[in-house]
Amino acid sequence: MTIERIVEQALQDGYLTPSMEAEVGKICNTASELSIEEYMALDRLMGALLTGEVVVLPRKQFINVMEELVLSEAIAKVAEIEATSDKSLDVGDIAAYALNRLPPLYATTEEGAQFQRTKAKDELQQLISQQVGEAIEQNITRKPIHSTVFGSSPNVGLQLSNLLKSYADQFEAQDLNLD
Predict the structure, then answer these.
(1) Which of 17, 88, 96, 159 has the smallest set of CB atoms within 10 Å of its CB?
(2) Angle formed at CA 16 by CA 20 and CA 31, multiple of 5 degrees
(3) CA-to-CA distance for 20 and 7, rounded, in angstroms?
(4) Is residue 103 exposed (0-12), middle (13-18) or buried (19+ Cβ within 10 Å)?
């Protein structure tokens, strides 16, 4: 979108969204030189902002408190496992696996975040611990796809076939009715 179009939209709507503001910034930062039309549009926008004809919508910050709780749990459990074994686990994969199986707990203020933390510790700590445990089990028992499929052999098709065969025993045979 052009600066002129963004300014026109802002004047029409009466507000400048964070994405519109970012787009104007991106254009200004990447252009070697702005045209006279672009300067005029920016001048119109500045005037509208100063008079209140256009307002800037605040950039709202959201945090998912569940992320920090899961990450803390995962780090503690992974550290314990790695200290007592020769296993190396991926905390990011473990946290993502668990987070995909847990409800999000979003907050927009620190007070809201503290409320969500307390709620999660009281009501969901056992579920968090269970999901992180399952994620660790999955991380330990599964072979990483990238090292199996994209190894040093040039025959990726054969590697992919072998990978699929190795995972086949994990799935039950199902009758497929395609009629």
Answers:
(1) 88
(2) 40
(3) 9
(4) exposed
